[in-house]
Design brief:
By secondary structure, the chain is an alpha+beta fold. The chain contains seven helices and 18 strands. It has an 18-stranded mixed sheet that branches. The longest helix is centred in the first third of the chain and has 13 residues.
């Protein structure tokens, strides 16, 4: 029986250096691949995410994109959006000369704007929905212990959930060294969540040594998405930008630019750029951006559909 064949491109996102950043597999022309096959392919790729490009169902979107981790499908994610949009531009699969396009994801249209040549963009910005945050969690010591840390390693600002489409738990730490010492103990972490729905845990600290408005971050999602540590998390970086601005952990007003370094601890150094616009104490616009560099391409083989 002849196999079905699908071309894919793998690109490293939030870096301009091959084999750093967060790798992403983009499966092009994914019509005819079932939900179960998409999940199996993502498990086979064994990357933080794999995307599948389909014709859009909306006239205002250039493509529909489905996003899978090795364990689950996501409604929205950052490095898959930046990476997929950049691959589509380089493959000539977007309207000629378009600098701003929209990708149809589970949360609806996600706008992406390119810097540089639209056919070979050097950088891409994705627009995030407004950030929302949950109440401060009171069991701070339990979360610190679950991360292998002391309560004294926490900043005074709240531990809370935050989302621009995909919720995460934000745990602010006092310094870069504490971020690097974090080592989640999953049963203890699940106990700390209690009756709350478990979320991926994003730990971060202001990094004054690296420069003004620099943040050093790590992301743990083994308990939610089968990803022990994510090298770069665009979906978490939008709320991160809003958090550090609202809690005065970075300087500036009006337009504030932030760089989050992530993935360094696991050898996949990534730089996620966040652009926040404010009006007084209100965040009015969030953009997350970065570069993407192609590293390989290939062909997937699937059995003929029955």
């Amino acid at each position: 029986m002849a196999a079905r064949q699908y071309r894919f491109v793998q690109t490293d996102v939030f870096t301009d250096t091959p084999y750093r950043g967060n790798p992403l597999a983009v499966v092009l022309g994914a019509e005819g691949i079932s939900d179960g096959e998409m999940q199996s392919i993502a498990r086979e790729m064994n990357l933080s995410e794999t995307t599948f490009v389909l014709p859009p169902s909306r006239a205002d979107c250039a493509a529909r994109v489905r996003i899978f981790t090795p364990g689950v499908e996501l409604p929205f994610a950052g490095h898959p959006t930046i990476g997929t949009a950049t691959v589509l531009a380089r493959e000539g699969l977007l309207p000629a000369g378009a600098r701003t396009i929209a990708l149809e994801e589970g949360i609806g249209p996600v706008a992406v704007t390119f810097d540089g040549d639209p056919a070979a963009p050097a950088f891409a910005w994705m627009r995030h929905p407004d950030a929302t945050f949950g109440p401060a969690l009171e069991n701070r010591a339990a979360f610190a212990r679950a991360l292998g840390l002391d309560e004294s390693d926490l900043l005074a600002t709240p531990i809370c959930s935050g989302s621009t489409g995909l919720p995460h738990l934000y745990v602010p730490l006092r310094d870069k060294e504490a971020v690097d010492r974090a080592a989640p103990e999953i049963p203890a972490l699940m106990r700390a969540f209690g009756e709350m729905e478990p979320l991926g845990v994003f730990v971060f600290a202001p990094d004054g040594e690296a420069g003004d408005n620099q943040v050093y971050s790590r992301m743990f999602a083994e308990h939610t998405a089968g990803i022990a540590e994510d090298p770069a998390t665009g979906s978490a970086s939008g709320p991160l930008g809003a958090y550090v601005v609202l809690h005065r952990l970075v300087a500036g007003e009006g337009e504030v630019r932030i760089v989050s370094e992530q993935g360094t601890k696991i050898g996949r150094q990534s730089f996620i750029h966040v652009r926040i616009r404010t009006d007084g104490d209100t965040v009015t616009q969030i953009d997350v951006g970065g570069s993407a560099v192609p590293v390989l391409e290939g062909t997937l083989f699937l059995p003929e559909a029955t």
